[in-house]
């Protein structure tokens, strides 16, 4: 059978209360075990799975008197769980009343292997739910399935942005959110990671420092120390990231929020002063950058992982996404950095900063801080919560660039960061 004819992050750590658009449409959700995401299917197997789903739906429409339905993994907010994968586990569920502890609230801090994800729940979606408004999401999902089918048959890949430009336009795709949500629905429907569907991320992350990278056994080593101020680009193709070969002489992995700070540290050759690998995703991390960092830590588990972000709730959200994962899709918790510690920017580095280098928290900042503190308290991240409480009590936030207010100006960034690392001033 043939089929005829990217990025709003639904990240828990953004502090949003928005639920997935299908979670309140009256659809029945059944408590049955969810099949694991299958990472080892061939393109032919996935094509067969797509054609089976489409064929079954067409048959149901043609022959069944009941409204057509689909069984897929639920991404409803109330099914978000926090789980420690040590010998003693704890979970909480997000409900309208807040966070509900459902197990022993003890975390094995020696492992810190705490991840966020979705409970094993399957959702039944009806084509005619919500007074037939459910037909639009169905149509969006099957248009994306059509694109995926085409990609798999041709052996090509496309970024989420490519798919957006191909499909954008009324009445189905009025915004990027419609496309991204449909892609996430396809992943939930097929239970296959998007990397196997021919969908990759736009290249956004960059790396530099004491790391050599090979793209394959026969290719030459690439020295990330020689990558210049902008660093070496991290591929958006997760399959190619998984095949990378590393050689590393670093002791630290420094995750940096801002590209400008990343470039400033590269210009100062910070990695020569302190043996480290520098990585940035230029803001909230994309899946490919997280996959790269996760593979690097799997290869060199001795690395001390540190985060350098703005002193504001959005910066804390970025740290949490790296450390605990996100819930934007079934893949959200596959790539985590459970040993990540917060280096800066923290209040201890702002004691001599003048008032004009701070900004006032806005309404969104305060709402995000409240949501983050609730979740971080459950994760026993007391030091992180303390920083958020300071932001709330003072009503202030600050960018990393506030460090430039010191006596050494921009040149002082390297010394301040390296001194904080050597004194182990991270939490």
What characteristics describe this protein?
single chain, 427 residues, alpha+beta, Arc Repressor Mutant, subunit A, Dna Topoisomerase Vi A Subunit, Chain: A, domain 2, 2 domains, 6-stranded mixed β-sheet, 3-stranded antiparallel β-sheet, 17% strand, globular, disordered N terminus, metal ion binding, DNA-binding, Spo11/TopoVI_A_sf, isomerase, EC 5.6.2.2
Please provide a written account of the structure.
With 427 residues, the chain is an alpha+beta fold. It folds into two domains: 145 residues, Winged helix-like DNA-binding domain superfamily/Winged helix DNA-binding domain (Arc Repressor Mutant, subunit A), CATH 1.10.10.10; 217 residues, Dna Topoisomerase Vi A Subunit, Chain: A, domain 2 (3-Layer(aba) Sandwich), CATH 3.40.1360. Helices cover 34% and strands 17% of the residues. It contains twelve helices and 20 strands. The strands form seven sheets. The protein has a six-stranded mixed sheet. Helix 9 links the parallel strand 17 and strand 18. Helix 10 packs antiparallel against helix 11. The chain is globular, with a radius of gyration of 23 Å. The relative contact order is 0.12. The N terminus is likely disordered. It catalyses: ATP-dependent breakage, passage and rejoining of double-stranded DNA. Keywords: DNA-binding, Isomerase, Magnesium, Metal-binding, Topoisomerase.
